Fold this protein.
Amino acid sequence: MTLSNGFYKQLVVSLDRGNPEEIRELFDELHSYDQAQFLLKLDQEQRKKMLQYLGDEELAEITQELEYEQQQVLIEEMGNTRSAKVLVEMSSDDAADLLGDMEEEKKQEILRLINDEESADMRELMKYPDNTAGGIMTTEYIVLPKHYTAEETVKKLREIAPDAETVYYLYVVDEEDKLLGVLSLRELIIASPEITIDEIMYERVVSVPVDMDQEEVANIMEKYDFLAVPVVDERQHLVGIITVDDAVDVMKDEASEDMAKFGGISGKDSGVMDLSVTSFEAAKKRIPWLVLLLGIGIVAGNIIHQFEETLEAVWVLAIFIPMIADMAGNTGTQSLAVVVRGLATGQFQGRDAFRLIKREAGVGILIGLTNGILISLIAGIWQQSMALGFVIGMSLSISLFFATLAGTIVPLIMVKLKVDPAVASGPFITTVNDILGLTIYFSIATAFMSYL
């Protein structure tokens, strides 16, 4: 059952009546995501009333479906005592993320209300930097000694599986928690009851170090189609796992971040997708890039000024300025998008750089020739001057070729300089290619002035 308007109204009516049985019957039909959306739609008084009908474990599952800002609203309305109970029922990584972004005083007050073992796990996870494997991992996973038989393992799973984040993979460790192997649930089920774990486990385990960047982790999981990946410390001790739902969240967050950078918006937390960010805060993130591009744009204006005599002699050249600049900017942005995406997904690595430049150079030649021939015919017929058509066509062809190369080479250089290639954003490349296109255009026009 999904949360349609009719179903929402029906639930609100039941809530106003205060009929617990009816509320439970209707609410239980919803998926936890829709239950979370229902809570958000209620006003504060209605939500406070609804929270009384929900258990701690149920509320934990609902809270995990919300964005951070929405979680904070619930935490405030629940109060510290109830919040502590709910956090204990949440996945350790989600609870640590939620606590980690709280104000220090409130965080410590809630942690004091949680038992020592649970709070120790949360504090341990909060020590790892954000955006690393340690920062997104969970400590709720299943570990087994290698001497267990398949039958013993199945019995053990019935006891410990309810507290694990996932049971699809079972990890085998030694007495010092060093990762020895991994076993899938499928392999366990089809194994003979008497066979031991070390006989069927997979020893060449793909794991990630605790300090690996979260985007790199997500790419590894996508590459191998993993539902979870183990996280190890420098001594190869198993310290946590990262599940596929966290990898999906990482990909979504990284895509939003790259899109912000690609649009010339500075800062990681750009707030482009967060409506709670004020106009002033959002503008503050965008202004630095725009001021920089304003300065570069003045250079483009100065180029036109340098060729003032050419423009005065052949004023019709001014008609094609926007077309030359826009086409160069757009072509460069296309190449930039391809390269940044390839670098982000790990498709372009090491020696691939030369092959990529070679391919994009070929693309630039084909794009330039196609558009150059087309515009030369259009301009020549329109202005009744084949010489003018030739100048504009040649200018556009050369501009598009170099714009394509610029869109390819700039992000590759930034990678070499250990700079995020996404900062070679659309506005930056567009403005640079405007300057490039105008310089080529007027240089060729001046050289062929006697024919125009």
About this structure: Residues 267-273 have pLDDT under 50 and may be disordered. The two ends are 72 Å apart (CA to CA). The chain has 22 helices and six strands.
